[in-house]
Prior knowledge:
The structure is a homodimer of 185-residue chains.
Chain A: H1 5-8, E1 12-16, H2 21-33, E2 42-49, H3 52-58, H4 60-72, H5 83-111, E3 116-123, H6 126-137, E4 141-145, H7 151-157, H8 160-167, E5 172-175
Parallel strand pairs in A: 1-2, 1-4, 2-3, 4-5
Helix pairs in contact in A: 2-5, 3-4, 4-5, 6-8
Amino acid sequence: MSVGDAAAKERKILVAVDEGDESMYALTWCLTNVISPNSKDTLILLHAQAPRAAYTALDGTVSDFIEWRVGNYDCASGYLFSTDIMSTMDKYHNDAADRLIEKAKNMCKDHVNDVKVETRVESGDPRDVICEMVQKLGVDVLVMGSHGYGWFKRAFLGSVSNHCAQNVKCPVLIVKKPKSNNLGK
Amino acid sequence: MSVGDAAAKERKILVAVDEGDESMYALTWCLTNVISPNSKDTLILLHAQAPRAAYTALDGTVSDFIEWRVGNYDCASGYLFSTDIMSTMDKYHNDAADRLIEKAKNMCKDHVNDVKVETRVESGDPRDVICEMVQKLGVDVLVMGSHGYGWFKRAFLGSVSNHCAQNVKCPVLIVKKPKSNNLGK
């Protein structure tokens, strides 16, 4: 097998994307350094959306949103929400996931013209979702930022990248965002 | 920046090699999947050689060798070695490191013709050596097997790949050897 065979193979490269800058940097780095010219690679953009129980407790942005909604509805406890509020929160999260995936897709278009891009949004603990999707889809390479899911969530969930590196069977590329945004060099 | 820019850049890719099959698989995977056709990449093959204090205690192969030598010299305790024996052990380890690096270089030649290959053998705890070399040489990508340095050493040293993934600043590619030796697919 000689150099350039990567271009001839049909590799499935899964990139785990989240709201953090680091995962978008990881995607850009992958597009620049891993995807081969004229490759038959398929890029799978996966966003693991935390389940409702997690994001009501752990997501700072939504927590702010909840407080505002609760204030409007005179419900100070912050633990009991009406069905309407829960639906609104779900819609907020789904819309955020759609925007995130759209942003990632646009980044792919900006970098490469000929790579096939698939997208997936799955609900669950990111650690489990990513490992399950790698296995289910027969992924050849998993690409992810080294952090992801914010410091507050990480404190509860543990390190997503560490968990995945230990548990998936395919090669894992962990990309850290440098202080200066100087790709690959 | 478009696809194919990786070929135009001068990337330094450090591959940590050891005596295990997994690190050689990681090297092969890197040669097949990471090195771009007609690239200006420099491949740095690094073998972190455990210091004498570690390999006398932790290396199964050398332990066998020591027992044999000790038997010949009627020194049953296994803890007190003459200067000659220590020198012989050092030579054994250095020769093993040379053979390992030579094997890795030959693998590079078998896979690619035009990539620049540099080699380094450094003494010390593999975790420290790898992190220091990444920093010192300004490496762009670190490639390593997920295990390395054997289960016995790992039990004492901790996971080398986990440590490096957490501590180096560049992207880290952790490659696992599948049960079926089917590269990249």
